[in-house]
Specification:
The complex is a heterotrimer of chains A (194), B (127) and C (392).
Chain A (H helix, E strand, L loop, with lengths): L5 E8 L4 H13 L4 E6 L9 E9 L14 E4 L19 E5 L4 H5 L11 E5 L1 H8 L6 H11 L5 H12 L5 H17 L1 E2 L1
Parallel strand pairs in A: 1-4, 4-5, 5-6
Antiparallel strand pairs in A: 1-3, 2-3, 6-7
Chain B lengths: L41 E5 L9 H5 L5 E4 L2 E5 L9 H5 L5 E5 L4 H4 L19
Antiparallel strand pairs in B: 1-4, 2-3
Chain C lengths: L4 E7 H12 L3 E4 L6 H12 L6 E4 L3 H13 L4 E5 L1 H6 L1 H9 L5 E6 L13 H4 L7 E4 L3 H18 L3 E6 L7 E7 L1 H8 L25 H31 L6 E4 L6 E6 L2 H14 L4 E6 L1 E3 L3 H7 L5 E6 L10 H12 L5 E6 L9 H15 L8 E2 L4
Helix pairs in contact in C: 1-2, 1-7, 3-5, 7-9, 10-13, 11-12
Classes of the chains: A alpha/beta (194), B alpha+beta (127), C alpha/beta (392).
Chain lengths: 194, 127, 392
């Protein structure tokens, strides 16, 4: 693997917007003239069913198109998944795990993530709470991309916000766009990283 | 090149390159030139006096062999009629009958109307 | 000098729909099927928004969509559709009608598995079932290649009077977002031009299509002419693709190699997995191993001479099929490749693999394993026979 390539694996339940978030990161990378790839692991669409999605960002063209087995970053949108699956499976020992939760990294290390190697950076953010505060609904996918930007500078907050304006600009009122942008900023500020 | 003068008489000797691409026919209405009347074993006979000119035979004829002039039936195109008998079946006025092809028209003109069951097989081994 | 291009992030289907919009065919007759649906769905939005003047014919099945395409193309319209999997299978009889009538229809296929068991994911089972139908068949590795091959497709179709099926791998390429470049609408419009067939049903002078050639050897002569056209398409595809490459700066070859200048061990492959194979080959070459890959972009007509030339110095060749030809010696790509080798008196060691059926993940370790098998074949290891990768 080229050192310039970052691979992200998303763990979520269908309906939480993980696929949209995976694409948001990829599309934001275009603002920085990077190469990108995003794809969900497609299955039957059943709201609440566990799913994975993948994002690759690189400074070089991306040729591989298989599932990501050795992610540099793991993002978990639903903390109940921590009890269901090993979200850190196969991951880069120097990588980072970002979890949507009200708990702190220390609390998770003492509980579900006791086996997580200490070399892996663990970060937590109450993305659901931020989404309810700003957007008015529990859709944690946009704020958690802001947290990602803080924990691993794969894409800058401005790139994310630029892409959000482009995506939402045609469909939503300014109020909704502003709420999404605010959620990115808040998660960027509030993410707790080790 | 497309024209009703398109000559296909020698098509069996054409090379693959000489056929139009995709074997389209470069002229319409070519079926007129193909005399199918010889396939016939039974022949329809039209009784002008009984005919009401309802044209139900013209509607149903699969070979467009009911001849019209100014909207009036004037006869049967025996160059293309295959003798299927649909016109006879459809005619409600007994103005059409089927005769064996070899039968002389005048001699048989008073004969019985042949029903379908009495017809000989017209199966064509080429089709 | 390449033209100015826009860099975008798009799914494979999104960029194919964009190419359709830029080409703006006269008629599209289509029916939705996963994972093709978003192509015609996006295009339907362009129609609804008045961005194109294309006549969009909705139909009740793929059997009907190809039938409608045949009518439309016979009438002289530049006609497109798109399909996948069961949809392509349902079109089977019309595929021969389209090619036999020499109609330049363009149909993108999102390559997908066939039932049973039911599976919506990517493999090449559907398109391989169409390989003997007389259609030109192209394979894209990426969204970018899908865009380029879609734009050259109508030119290839119309120059050779053959239907063309550009394909991309279901989900893997159709639904993943990737970076790609697109050219201006005007450049595409200029490249594809307008289509005016020499003969068409709606001409003032009527013609007839769908003639009967039952007796004698007329049928045989018509098929001989079709074979000549299919063979001749190979040079024509290259000429048209080169013209497009001069505009975009992105070359197209029927057979694209990597590492072939010194490779002893070569993998032959189609479609999206070529990138995975190349990634592994690059890693192995960095550690001094003489490995390479050959990717085919043109599959029908089969570039026999080009492939044989690409494999001429290989000592061991692995042919990787993403579909099986049950009961035959190998998968379809392997059968074609071995025929090419035999025809050119080449005798490398051969290994046959089936991979990635029904969208099974194509892991990089598979390719390392395959290169190791090839290495072993050179020291006399017995041929293990046709091998399904990743099922143990």
């Amino acid at each position: 693997m080229s050192a310039t390539l970052t691979e992200i694996r998303w763990h979520a339940r269908a309906g939480q917007g993980a696929v949209t978030a995976a694409k948001l990161v990829a599309e934001s990378a275009l603002y920085e003239d990077k190469y990108l790839q995003a794809m969900p692991e497609y299955g039957p669409e059943r709201t609440g069913a566990p799913l994975k999605a993948y994002t690759r960002v690189s400074t070089e063209p991306i040729e591989v198109c298989n599932n990501i087995e050795h992610p540099d970053v793991v993002i978990v949108l639903d903390e109940t998944l921590l009890k269901v699956e090993d979200v850190a499976e196969g991951m880069n020992p120097e990588g980072a795990v970002i979890i949507n939760t009200m708990r702190t990294p220390e609390e998770l290390r003492a509980d579900e993530l006791s086996a997580l190697p200490s070399s892996v950076t663990l970060a937590t953010v109450d993305a659901s709470g931020i989404a309810v505060d700003t957007i008015g609904r529990d859709i944690p996918n946009t704020p958690i991309v802001g947290a990602l930007s803080k924990v691993r500078p794969i894409v800058a907050p401005d790139s994310i916000k630029g892409q959000l304006v482009k995506t939402f600009g045609k469909k939503f009122a300014q109020e909704m766009i502003d709420a999404n942008l605010a959620s990115v900023d808040r998660a960027y500020e509030e993410v707790r990283s080790e | 090149m497309s024209s009703n003068n398109w000559d296909v008489s020698d098509y069996e000797n054409w090379t693959p390159e000489e056929f139009p691409v995709g074997m389209c026919a470069l002229a319409g209405g070519k079926a007129v030139e193909y005399i199918t009347g010889s396939w016939r074993s039974m022949r329809p006979l039209w009784d002008k006096d009984k005919c009401t000119n309802c044209l139900i035979c013209w509607v149903n004829c699969p070979d467009s062999s009911i001849k019209l002039q100014d909207g009036q039936m004037v006869g049967i195109d025996l160059d293309h009629c295959k003798g299927c008998g649909v016109c006879v079946t459809e005619c409600r006025f007994e103005a059409l009958r089927l005769l064996p092809e070899h039968c002389d028209e005048v001699k048989c003109s008073e004969g019985p109307v042949l029903d379908e069951a009495a017809q000989p097989s017209t199966m064509n081994p080429e089709v | 000098m390449a033209t100015e291009q826009r860099t975008i992030a798009a799914t494979g289907n999104g960029i194919v729909a964009e190419a359709y919009r830029q080409i703006e065919p006269d008629v599209i007759c289509a029916y939705p099927i996963t994972p093709q649906t978003t192509i015609v769905e996006e295009f339907a939005k362009f129609v609804a928004a008045g961005k194109v003047t294309t006549e969009f014919v909705t139909v009740e099945s793929e059997h009907s969509s190809m039938s409608a395409c045949i009518g439309s193309s016979s009438a002289g319209a530049r006609t497109f559709t798109a399909t996948s999997s069961q949809g392509l299978a349902l079109m089977y009889e019309e595929l021969f009608v389209a090619s036999g009538l020499r109609l330049p229809i363009v149909m993108v296929n999102a390559n997908r598995a066939l039932s049973a068991p039911i599976n919506i994911h990517g493999d090449h089972s559907d398109v391989m079932g169409a390989r003997d139908t007389g259609w030109v068949i192209l394979f894209a590795e990426s969204a970018q290649e899908a865009y380029d091959q879609t734009i050259i497709a109508p030119r290839i179709a119309e120059a050779n009077l053959l239907p063309v099926m550009p394909t991309l791998d279901g989900f893997i390429t159709t639904h993943a977002i990737a970076r790609a470049q697109v050219v201006d609408d005007a450049v595409v419009k200029d490249f594809v031009g307008t289509w005016k067939p020499e003969h068409a049903l709606l001409d003032r002078e009527p013609i007839m299509v769908g003639g009967f050639a039952n007796l004698g050897n007329t049928y045989m002569k018509i098929k001989a002419a079709q074979r000549v056209a299919a063979d001749g398409a190979l040079a024509s595809i290259k000429t048209i693709a080169d013209e497009w490459a001069a505009i975009t700066g992105r070359p197209y070859d029927h057979v694209e190699g990597y590492g072939l200048e010194d490779a002893d061990l070569v993998i032959v492959i189609l479609g999206s997995a070529a990138g995975n194979a190349r990634t592994v080959a690059r890693d192995l070459r960095a550690s001094g191993r003489k490995v390479g890959i050959v990717k085919l972009r043109t599959y029908r007509p089969f570039p026999t001479a080009e492939l044989a030339a690409a494999l001429s110095r290989a000592k061991a060749v692995a042919i990787m099929d993403r579909s099986d030809s049950f009961g035959s010696f190998a998968g379809p790509l392997a059968l074609d490749t071995m025929a090419a080798l035999y025809a050119h008196d080449l005798h490398p060691q051969i290994r046959r693999y089936i991979y990635g059926l029904g969208g099974a993940d194509v892991k990089l370790e598979y390719f390392r394993h395959v290169y190791d098998d090839l290495e072993a074949s050179l020291s006399g290891a017995a041929d293990p026979g046709l091998t399904y990768l990743g099922i143990d």
